């Protein structure tokens, strides 16, 4: 639950202030390309990177992957170029081994994805999505954790099947309310459900903008959104991606 919550948090944080940048640019007469396209609906890791932080993905392709030789020098060199590109992508996010390992994981996943595609074996879409989503959430652990010891502890807790040996231990494992103070478990679950719906089912912001025509109705919506945000306006909440 914590890892999935972090995945939603970092997506809403990053795509949210990307939308702010796009909106401010429009007010100044510039058009900025969209940066996200429902990344958690991706059916494989390659598709994820075509949907997630698309400006960085295109930069990595144009200024690292292609100059290294891209996919024009045989399979082994292609795999090497993918690994170098994403290890450097991890290093770009932070000069730490956990970030570098996160980049290594995504590079390795992309290599496996390309090799699988070469086999011409079709995987059921739901299974492909589930495997991709589980991998993404597992990789976020290394992105967030300050060190490998912490990441290992989190992953061990997530897959600790030995805790299923008795009904009592299963009950304790499922008692996630002990991880969340002040009995806010219902609020956390509600936010996860709401944000999952927004990130997976609703239109992207750039799709909404195409249908927006300034008028009285949209002015009312903007005012209501502003009023909803007013109670929290004094609270300091730094954008997560400011640290990268």
Biggest pleated sheet: none
Number of domains: 1
Please count the helical segments.
11
Low-confidence segments, given as residue ranges, are: none
How far apart, in Å, are the first and last alpha carbons? Answer: 24 Å
Radius of gyration: 21 Å
How many β-strands, per DSSP? 0
What's the rounded overall pLDDT mean? 85
Measured by DSSP, the beta-strand proportion falls in: under 5%
Helicity level, as a percent range?
55-70%
Sketch the topology as an H/E string, one letter per element.
Answer: HHHHHHHHHHH
The SS-based structural class is mainly alpha
Task: Please sum up the structure shown.
The protein is mainly α and 244 residues long.
Structure description:
With 244 residues, the protein is an all-alpha fold. The chain has one domain. Helix content is 66%, strand content 0%. It has 11 helices and no strands. It starts with a helix and ends in a 15-residue tail after the last helix. The relative contact order is 0.12. The model has no long low-confidence stretch (mean pLDDT 85).
How are the elements arranged and paired?
Layout lengths: L1 H26 L17 H7 L2 H12 L9 H19 L3 H22 L6 H20 L3 H11 L8 H8 L10 H17 L3 H6 L5 H14 L15
Helix pairs in contact: 1-6, 1-9, 3-4, 4-5, 5-6, 6-7
């Amino acid at each position: 639950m914590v890892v999935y919550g972090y995945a939603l948090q970092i997506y809403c944080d990053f795509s949210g202030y990307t939308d702010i940048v796009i909106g401010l640019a429009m007010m100044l007469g510039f058009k900025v390309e969209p940066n996200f396209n429902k990344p958690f609906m991706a059916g494989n890791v390659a598709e994820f990177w075509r949907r997630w932080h698309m400006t960085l993905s295109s930069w990595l392709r144009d200024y690292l992957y292609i100059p290294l030789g891209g996919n024009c020098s045989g399979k082994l060199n292609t795999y090497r170029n993918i690994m170098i590109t994403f290890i450097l992508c991890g290093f770009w996010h932070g000069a730490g081994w956990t970030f570098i390992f996160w980049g290594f994981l995504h590079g390795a996943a992309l290599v496996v994805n390309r090799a699988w595609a070469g086999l011409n074996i079709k995987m059921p879409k739901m299974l492909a999505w589930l495997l991709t989503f589980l991998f993404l959430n597992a990789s976020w652990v290394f992105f967030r954790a300050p060190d490998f010891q912490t990441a290992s502890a989190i992953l061990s807790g997530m897959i600790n099947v030995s805790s299923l040996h008795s009904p009592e231990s299963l009950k304790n494992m499922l008692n996630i309310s002990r991880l969340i103070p002040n009995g806010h478990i219902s609020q956390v679950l509600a936010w996860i459900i709401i944000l999952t719906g927004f990130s997976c089912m609703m239109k992207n912001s750039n799709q909404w903008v195409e249908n927006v025509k300034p008028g009285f109705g949209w002015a009312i919506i903007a005012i209501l959104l502003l009023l909803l945000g007013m109670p929290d306006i004094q609270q300091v909440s730094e954008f997560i991606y400011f640290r990268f």
